[in-house]
Write a structure and sequence with these properties.
This protein has helices spanning 4-14, 18-25, 29-37, 44-56, 81-93, 109-116, 120-131, 191-207, 216-229, and strands at 59-62, 66-69, 74-78, 101-105, 134-140, 153-156, 167-170, 173-178, 184-189. It has nine helices and nine strands. It has two domains: 4-69, 434 Repressor (Amino-terminal Domain), CATH 1.10.260.40; 74-215, Endonuclease Chain A (Endonuclease, Chain A, 2-Layer Sandwich), CATH 3.30.870.10. With 230 residues, it is of the alpha+beta class. It is elongated and about 75 Å long. Helix content is 46%, strand content 20%. It has a seven-stranded mixed beta sheet, with helices on both faces. A hairpin with a 2-residue loop joins strand 7 (167-170) and strand 8.
Amino acid sequence: MIDNRQIRAARALLEWSQIDLARAAGMARSSIKAIEAGTSAPRRETLEAIAATFEAAGVDFCPPSGVRLKTDVVTVHQGRDAATELLNSIMRHAPNDPAQELCIIGLDEQLAAELDGPDVHPTLRARLAQAGVRERILIAEGVKEFLRDEGSYRWMPRDGFCRNAPIYIYGDKVAVQSGTLRRQTIIIDAKPLAQHLRALFGVLWTGADTPWEKPAFAVRRARQREQAAV
């Protein structure tokens, strides 16, 4: 989470006044002044909104307390921080996007818990629910053990499922997780790509089966075998 020093530094990079930031973030100038001076304890949602405002203007926040202007469309996080950086990016952008939605293609929750720790996805789920963000997740056909409400899931055929590289679509960003021995998160800041993949996700979601119904995939394959045998 960003701090008051990063907020001041980000304003300086953009040559923004406190009034400029307040207008861009939809806040009062007095609130910005108090946060920067350290005389108030802002809520997480407030800091996330400020961070999202700066990022939309081309500022990149670097842990633990760095600030720089964006030069790359692609950001790579590796090692222990890979999952945490993905979670933070999602929480900075998904709640502030008009769609207020996180779409995930190819998530294996059991594998994610083994590689990233058992708390990452439950924490993400709780924070997204609190922020009013909906989740839609395409998982492998046949899986019936869920961390979220079953209405958040639909099945995709196993022959098209890649458990080692789930794709996250949120705001104007697309992220991919990979690696087992060394985790890696690649975050791509590209609105056209995010829009294209979100539309593709919608097509897949509409044609997918719900986990509490008999999978149409199996029915279609059975019919295909019957037709081939004729």
